[in-house]
Amino acid sequence: MSRGKSSLVEVVERRTFLKVLGSAGPAAAIAACSPVPPEKIIPFVIPPEDVIPGVATWYASVCDECPAGCGTLVRTREGRAVKVEGNPEHPVNRGGLCIRGQSSLQGLYNPDRITGPQRRRVTNEAAGQSVLEPVPWDEAQQQLVDRLQTLRDAGRGDRVALVTPPLTGTMATLVSTWADVLGARWVRYEPFAYEAIRAANRLVFGRAELPHFDFATADLVVSFGADFLETFGSPVGYARDHAGQRRVRDSEKARFVQIEPRLSMTGSNADTWYPVPPETEGLVAAAMIQTIVGEQRTQGVPDDQIEQIAGLVAGASPEEVAGVAGIPADTIRELARAFSDPTLGPGRTLAVGGGVSVSGSNATASHLAVTLLNLVAGNIGATVDFDAASTLDTATYAEMRALGDAMRSGEIELAIIHNVNPVFTMPRAADFGGALAQVPFVAGLSSLPDETTAQADLILPTHTALEAWGDSNPRHGVHGLVQPVMQPVFDTRHVGEVLAEVGRALGDEPAAALPRRGFYRFLRDEWEQLQPAPEPDPDAEEPVAPDFEPFWANALRRGGITLPVEPAPLEVSPAVFDRDLVGDLTPASSARAYMLVTYPSLHFYDGRGANRPWLQEIPEPLLKTTWGTGVEMTSDTARALGAEEGRLVAIESDHGQVDASVIINPHLADGVVAIAIGQGHTNFGRYATGRGVNPIALLDPEPEAASGGVRWLGTGVDITPRELERPIPRLQYTFDQNGRELAQSVSLATLAAGEAPAEEHHFSLYPEHDHPVHDWGMAIDLDACTGCNACVAACYAENNIPVMGADRMRRGRTMSWLRIERFVEPGAGDAGPDTRFLPMLCQQCDHAPCEVVCPVYATYHTDEGLNAQIYNRCVGTRYCANNCPYKVRRFNWFMPEFDAPLPLQLNPDVTGRSDGVMEKCTFCVQRIYDGKDVARDENRPVRDGDVLPACAQSCPAQAIVFGDTNDPESRVSQLSNDARAYHVLSVMNTRPAVTYLKKVTQA
Amino acid sequence: MSVDPTSARPARIALLCAIAMLLGAGAFSIFSAQEPEPGETAAAELEDAPTGVADPTAQPIEFSHAHHVTEIGIDCQFCHAYARRGPIAGIPSVRRCAGCHQSVLSEEPEVLKVLEYFENGEPIPWVRVHDLPDHVRFTHKSHLRAGVECADCHGRVEEMEAAVQVESLSMGWCLSCHQERDVTPDCLVCHH
Predict the structure, then answer these.
(1) Which residue from A192, A553, A847, B170 has the least number of CB within 10 angstroms?
(2) How far does the CA of residue B23 sit from the closest CA of chain A (Å)?
(3) Is the pLDDT of residue B9 over 80?
């Protein structure tokens, strides 16, 4: 065919023209109707050492989303971070990573991030109007220096407050030096500071610490509201330990009992759930102690202490507690006996009290009871490990209130706030915002604009953890290294360097004390002191100085180091027995109609995750709500109020009033309504502002007396329905399987007897597929899955799945390739609801209903057992989705949109889809090719474990196993032949490649 | 496929195509009214014509492959250094060019251009010659590992002054080679 001056009419044949028109992809359309523009190909000027274009570079680092300090591996492509995964070598999380950790990329690339330093300029003094305007870094920093210098010159240098998160490691050293040398007041603020747990441990052992709970050796866990699979302590590590211990071994399975007013995601994984009124958990623990002591089942407790403990709980007989808590006395006794079962051996059980969920007016007494319960069962030093306790040193809420009072009284003339948002996270009635407004000059050193930085006079934006050097020391013996994985996205600086430079400009003394060569040098210097001394060599004449470089390189590569911890003996303080424990445990009463339970959100934590589209879009694990929160109540409560799902109601407490949408949740104790913490932001970027409801506005500003913590529970509220409907989008409205047995279970007894019914195999008219080399398959253990959504977020990140937003989600337009369905069956006896989580993704059927209806061969079966979806062939008939019984195919009704700079996160290994195209899971086929590529490089066959899809990688509980079912030795092959194995909708004879393992119930 | 949210172009083109379908033959006159400019590629040439062939004179520097490969004997992968390690063969960094040319032929006018780019710390804006659509995942590494020669796809570059595209790089062309060599014709390998 001739090139040059030829018109379309002359050269286009009918078939070609229709082919061009039929192409769904805009790329094809561009090529068809417009000339290909000449593309430039830009070489490196100087090539970076560790970058091969098109090949991922990984960096080990530490997650900064909560104080747990999980190790991460960050995948970067061409100098930008595209995925965060758990570090399998890190002792805290050992491979998994939660939904919040996955979403740290959306903190890095958040469209609302502060892009450079800003200064407030008053535009209308009379009206109190002002604007933030950009200012160069040096000028901005100089302004802070001048302000500090003025105060110091006036002899008021101690009127400076610095509020930071609970920093550890080198940053803590630096900030502590800074505050000391400048005489400033340094407050480490963490909204979920677990004050009551630390206060109780101080009373009993003289150590105000959060111990490490060893779920890996606990045969019975009794959790008093601890959401240890969601936010409490170290949830990823706990989930891993707990799932490992709960695996069926020798026909036995560790037991798990949850006692709490609102069924949490953690509680829905328990064998037994007891709903109790708020603030009565401690009484249940006390009654259990009384039974254990009374029946002489204590383990390893000296006789004199036994007597004193008996005295403490004398007033908490199971009968009396049963009347308050609503758990039958015999049930409490049975639970106490199981908890102190001598056949288990000492220290094989574990009681955990929740940090936020047990935090009413009797929080410290309740945690004291839980600690004593562990003491009488011999768990202290065994499953309750103080040697690996959290090192986090945080201020109590009462100290933050005192800071607010100091601000109001004019004692603070300059406040520096770094990456905390107390205006939002402290009870509204405490009015920290009002206090901050009294401070003449506020500097915000944060990376994101929030309610607190909105009040700043000067904003010096800082790096996120993915752009900065740092380290973390979350618990004794664990030292993680944070390294920058990319250049800063915006014009930000390292907070340590800003503080050091500002401090050094303030005189000779601070200049001498603060590091002058940048934070990286300071970090290395600090780590030189962490390096263990080498083994003394008897032949050497002089002791050899250890070589730091290999140590440093190794620590960077592995993401940190672990150091041995010297065990410290624990002694029970006699003073602890000198109190009226049962009197202290008495719940507060309220004249209001309902008791409010606030709980930390799995997705948003204390609210810091609310500005991330993945966390808003992915349905909440229990109620499957998205893009908003509301007030949860039972249908009985709703009926009594004359409200229904979606109705807006006004909620009033003694301390505030909010409007919230009703969400029906059947799993609440009587008289309880619940609201998740984390939404209801007023100034936190486009995704969070004005969304959901903030329960903190209703809370009592008075701290709990004994610990100084926030009273997250026990606020009485009245509720009045309003004449407005504001339904929260939900992805699942019924949790009833309607007898279809999608998520199946089997009892432990049936399993042990070998009577688990085998799956029926059906004859098929379709020819069998040949899988000569590989036949990829997946096994998902419903007994291990906790419903935590980590896999869903990993899938969004890996596969460039767009978010739809509230309006489209309300119409069911989710694009998730992997979702977690939740079904609830009535539990056996009084065990409470039997919740089953069913991760649902493309089943890669051997006899796929979607394949046979595609008119253009865009979906077909590969030689390796995958159900392929070829986006550039797809013309969008949607026949395949209509024919899919699993509803795992997603159609792009719209062109996917990602607000800049979020597109920097997109995975270049996965094609972006456009409107008019069907998409779905392909077992992360790009990772399959990567695994095969590594094997070919090493000239060997693909081994089990070489290929790890994003969902399986992220799973904290290791519920998802992937591999080649052609290999009889692979883990997935073995699990596929397990007695618990079944396939969803096997009656349709689709022959899925995803095998599910039934949940195991105790009864 | 592009996910660039700022581009309204696909939508516009899709609309144009839809109108064309509706108007049937009438639409051809719309298209025919738009005479392609010289050097533009017409739609129908998609299948058989090489895509994305650049004008050899359009390169910012008159670089001769023939001289470097045939006369001097430099291996392809000395400059295209990433080919056996990853999907992208890579264009040599400016430092690699300057590394030799700071001492070799450093007075030549074309070489001076290279050295100027290097001194200014600027990349050389080469014009892409071989371009595959964004929905194709080609990797040099596996092809080299399987023993495919550079020339099998790129032609006898060692005889060219400026590089030009000689093969169509169309899907049919890829598949014919896959068939000859009994390699998987699975769509997913290149389209995922």
Answers:
(1) A553
(2) 13
(3) no
